[in-house]
Amino acid sequence: MIDTKVRRWLPTWFGGRRTPEVFRPRGTSSRVSRLAAQYDAEVDAALRRLWPKARIYHDREFTRDRADFLLVVRGRGVMIETKVKSDPGLFRGSTLPPLLDRLQRDGRRLLVLVNQGDPTPARDLINTKLGDRGRIVVWSGPHHDTDLRQAVEALLDQTTRHA
Fold first, then answer.
1. What percent of the residues of the chain are helix, what percent strand, and what percent coil, each to the nearest 5?
2. Domains in the chain: how many in total?
3. Looking at the domain assignment, is residue 64 inside a domain?
4. Nearest residue to 98 via CA among 52, 68, 125, 65
5. pLDDT digit string (tens) for 116-148?
6. What is the pTM of this model?
7. Is 12 within a domain?
8. Backbone phi, then psi, for 81, in 5-degree steps?
9. What contacts 161, CB < 8 A, 6 or more positions away?
10. Which end of the chain is least crowded, N or C, by CB within 10 Å?
11. CATH at 141
């Protein structure tokens, strides 16, 4: 059936959106959205496996300035942002600046998990904004659990809260 309500489709001709970004599915396509949901579930399972006594909070709302997970281990927290790439190329981190700006102000620690690719450009961006309070790791399954554990523990071992 064709939508005949002019007020619904006319704004899209002039750059308007039908739905606000917060209600849009994660990712840029349905394939990437499904991959992102699956990846988040795998990351959640890995966090529960590696830190069974930890508290894990998952932000179910899509926003660019909040991390996907908060992992609290031994009373210390690490924000975890997951990123899904559909190709094995470079991960530049173009969607990270709003989150990095917020965490830079808050003084929190951040771990970015990427499912594949070379994270070198994003690593430089994270180091510039957060310094030693930020890390990026390629994690695509249990065979990368050692890297995940080392990155989280390094962030948790920081004794001072940075301003």
1. 45, 20, 40
2. 1
3. yes
4. 65
5. 999 999 999 999 999 999 999 999 999 999 999
6. 0.78
7. no
8. -110, 130
9. 107
10. N
11. 3.40.1350.10
